[in-house]
Amino acid sequence: MTTAHDYGRGIDPERALKYAIQHQSGDRTEIVEGIITQVTPSWDHERAAKIVRRQIEARVDELGCVEGSGNLDLPGSSNWYVPDIAVVPDDLAQGGKALVPDQTLLIVEVTSECDAETDRVVKRKRYAEYGAPLYLLVDRVEKSVTGSCEPSGLGYTRTDGPHPFGTPVRLPEPFDLELDTTGL
């Protein structure tokens, strides 16, 4: 006799959860440490992301990349992120599949009051573990910008900041440009 318990055998819970997020929810649904979150950015939040996007656009084009907020999978974990901005090579951005953080050149998260600690601590740690080479945190709550690079399994080994809004912030190679943080 088959029981309800038998139907669950062989199903990978991580895969099932991520499949559900990809196929049954809105564009901005994340899984953070196993908790499903519908992301609804405020206009101030979107404005801050736009200010960063405009400053990096030309360099992103020169690098043959695209910037956007596509899905990032963190395989082997219960995490599925939708960063505010991710810069990825153009050829990887085609095909509609999720990428992993080590396929990005830059990830930018803009905090909101409800998720600031997640962006500051959890995502920073996870992005480093999964090899994202450059993480920029625009912390609207603390009114600061922090850049992190040189990822390892234990976190980022180099951090520049936090710098108060209004302080120019240098993005390292391959961007090699200075961000004007006024107005964030």
Explained architecture:
The N terminus is likely disordered. Strands 3-6-7-8-9-10 form a six-stranded mixed beta sheet. A two-stranded antiparallel sheet has the order 1-2. It contains four helices and twelve strands; from the N terminus they run ααββαβββββαβββββ. The relative contact order is 0.13. The protein has one domain: tt1808, chain A, CATH 3.90.1570.10. With 184 residues, it is an alpha+beta fold. β4 and β5 form a beta hairpin. The radius of gyration is 17 Å and the shape is globular. Helix content is 27%, strand content 32%.
Key features of this structure:
184 residues, disordered N terminus, two-stranded antiparallel sheet, tt1808, chain A, alpha+beta, 4 helices, 27% helix
Compile the SSE list and pairings.
Blueprint: H1 4-7, H2 13-24, E1 29-32, E2 35-38, H3 43-62, E3 65-68, E4 72-74, E5 79-81, E6 85-89, E7 106-110, H4 116-129, E8 134-139, E9 144-152, E10 155-164, E11 169-171, E12 177-179
Parallel strand pairs: 7-8
Antiparallel strand pairs: 1-2, 3-6, 4-5, 6-7, 8-9, 9-10, 11-12
The total domain count is 1
CATH homology superfamily? tt1808, chain A
Total number of beta strands: 12
- Classify the secondary structure makeup into a structural class: alpha+beta
Shape-level CATH architecture: Alpha-Beta Complex
Content of β-strand: 25-35%
Largest sheet: 6 strands, mixed
How far apart are the first and last residues' alpha carbons, in Å? 62 Å
CATH top-level class:
Alpha Beta
Query: In CATH terms, what is the fold-level topology?
Result: tt1808, chain A
Q: Please write the string of helix (H) and strand (E) elements.
A: HHEEHEEEEEHEEEEE
Widest sheet, order of strands = 3-6-7-8-9-10
Q: Mean pLDDT, nearest integer?
A: 88
